[in-house]
């Protein structure tokens, strides 16, 4: 099931997206979105009744970030060996965690703002895990019990600030530095990603990242267990699972598309205020 957050010009709503995706992860012309009664994280999957239940053509609505993290986005660094190598770093012995504020989240089609404090802004296409309920100290074998679903992220990074600051807060925490979308896919399982789902990033149509989730150093159950051993996770919190090799700079006016097999595609442009 693909759960999206959208607007027709009025207050945001949640809905279920139907229709097939093309080879690029884009929905077809026949795709529609059926409104739900409230946030499914809290009220479950409940369709609206009566006149309010009218479905919309997906092309006629604006998709928003599919989840607004209640408290935090937890990033995982250097979780692909090839990416660690391209950054001149060793593979960590345990998951390397950092935080992105929930104010960094934007949705599909929103601009990534190039801040004046950096001159080296990078894309990082990633699989994102959306937490479905309050949890702490989750054993790896029970990780699926607390996962609501999966979406796509771009862990935007000011690479020069990351190097100069050493820690990641400023480099990864600017407003708009965490595009999420286009929806949450609930019908996947951690085992699907261990077998391998293709993660690709295109910059202005050119393929710049082409990896597989089979190459994750720490798999999804391990990440959920590790993060929840440190901090309580809340419904809507997001864990970014790391990026494959091929990261690189974006410029104002660029279009960046991150796609993950079985989920879809997330597209944003780079702009200035």
Overview of this protein structure:
- The chain is mainly β.
- It has 2 domains: 2-64, SH3 type barrels (Roll), CATH 2.30.30; 73-271, Fumarylacetoacetase-like, C-terminal domain (Fumarylacetoacetate hydrolase, domain 2).
- The protein has helices at residues 40-43, 81-86, 159-165, 169-173, 190-195, 220-228, and strands spanning 2-7, 13-18, 32-35, 56-57, 62-64, 73-77, 96-100, 105-106, 111-113, 121-123, 125-131, 147-154, 157-158, 178-185, 198-203, 206-212, 238-240, 248-249, 255-260, 264-271.
- The strands form 3 sheets. Strands 1, 2, 3, 4, 5, 6, 7, 8, 11, 12, 14 and 17 form a 12-stranded mixed β-sheet that branches.
- A hairpin with a 2-residue loop joins strand 15 (198-203) and strand 16.
- The N and C termini lie far apart (36 Å).
- The model has no long low-confidence stretch (mean pLDDT 95).
């Amino acid at each position: 099931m693909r759960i999206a957050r959208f607007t027709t010009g009025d207050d945001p709503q949640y809905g279920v997206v139907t229709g097939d995706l093309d080879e690029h992860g884009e929905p077809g012309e026949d795709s529609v979105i059926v409104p739900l009664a409230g946030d499914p994280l809290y009220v479950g999957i409940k369709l609206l009744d009566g006149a309010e239940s009218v479905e919309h053509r997906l092309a006629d609505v604006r998709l928003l970030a599919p989840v607004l993290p209640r408290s935090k986005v937890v990033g995982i660094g250097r979780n692909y060996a090839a990416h660690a190598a391209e950054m001149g770093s060793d593979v960590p012995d345990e998951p390397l965690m950092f935080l992105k504020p929930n104010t960094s989240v934007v949705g599909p089609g929103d601009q990534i703002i190039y801040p004046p404090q950096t001159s080296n802004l990078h894309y990082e296409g990633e699989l994102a895990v959306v937490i479905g309920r309050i949890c702490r100290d989750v054993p790896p074998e029970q990780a699926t019990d607390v996962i609501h679903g999966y979406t796509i992220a771009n862990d935007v990074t000011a690479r020069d600030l990351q190097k100069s600051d050493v820690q990641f807060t400023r480099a990864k925490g600017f407003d708009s530095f965490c595009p999420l979308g286009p929806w949450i896919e609930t019908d996947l399982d951690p085992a699907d990603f261990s077998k391998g789902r293709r993660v690709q990033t295109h910059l202005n149509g050119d393929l710049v990242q082409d990896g597989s989730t089979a190459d994750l150093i720490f798999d999804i159950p391990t990440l959920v267990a590790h993060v929840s051993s440190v901090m309580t996770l809340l419904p809507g919190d997001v864990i970014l699972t790391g990026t494959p090799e091929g990261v690189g700079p974006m410029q104002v006016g660029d279009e960046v598309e991150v796609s993950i097999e079985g989920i879809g595609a997330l597209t944003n442009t780079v702009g200035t205020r």
